[in-house]
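User: Could you check the structure of this?
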Amino acid sequence: MEKLDIKRQSFLNLTFSTDWFFVSAIRSLLKEILNKHYKNIESVSVIIICISELIENSIKYSDNGKAHVSIDFDFENGLVMCQLTNTANEENIKSLKDETKDLNINNIQEVYIKRVERAAESSDEDKSQLGLARVVFDGQTNLDIAFNDNQVIVRTVFSIAKIE
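Assistant: Sure, the predicted structure tokens are below.
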């Protein structure tokens, strides 16, 4: 992931139980914060959807009942940096590694189309694997994913200018 000098002007730092309630609560809070600072409603919506998808994944694949999200805002430069941390079992870590090895902004349209086609042919809705591809495609970003034993750390930076 490219190194960015984020001038953190505001941030959220939450550890939460893997209760689906927190997805909508964080989504509502993000909407309030981003709408206050950015006028492009479409870009704000994309960022909220992408961060929500990342939070949903951290809840869905957490194996200890909690996850952590940290969101930094650089309003001056139109950047939103998101980091999620959770623990996962070996099977989910292997699946995440397999599904993200080909995800990057340079080939995302091709990868996304293939995954949409694969999802259309699959009967297993829970395993569509479209979520992270949508984050990269719609959010015009890359995912930096690190593993430390059974801990998963996902980082990304969204740029309002890239999404517009």
